[in-house]
Amino acid sequence: MSASSNPPARADRPVPRAVAVSAWAVPVMVLARFALLAVVPVAVALVGALTRVRDRAVRGSAALVAVAVAFAVPLVVWPARPDGAPSLSEDIHPGFVGLIVLASCALVLTVHRARRG
Asked: Where exactly are the transmembrane stretches of this chain (predicted)?
């Protein structure tokens, strides 16, 4: 008798849970002033959406890469500036924060739509 403690993976799930959670984590972390740590969910959502999701709308939303591009610009500019703030959250322009949050919300809505149906 072979007993497994791991539940079987759901193959019918159109969007992996890691992509959905990461899509939600990006705007929360950026708004909570953890912008540098938000690199991790941005990468997870982007790679997961492009490689593991069959829904073209989710791939298209992630392929716009608005989240990644909007996040990459301040991430590259921050260490390059000689007079930059000690924290990315302090140095990032509010316009970029808004752009990151809007792009993340678009990805969240697309993921939610794909999971429903």
From this structure: 24-50, 62-80, 92-111
Q: Could you tell me if 89 and 29 are in contact, meaning their C-beta atoms sit under 8 angstroms apart? A: no
Please tell me the total count of domains within the chain: 1
Q: Is residue 3 part of a domain?
A: no
- By residue range, what is the domain housing residue 55? 17-116
Q: Is the pLDDT of residue 13 over 60?
A: yes
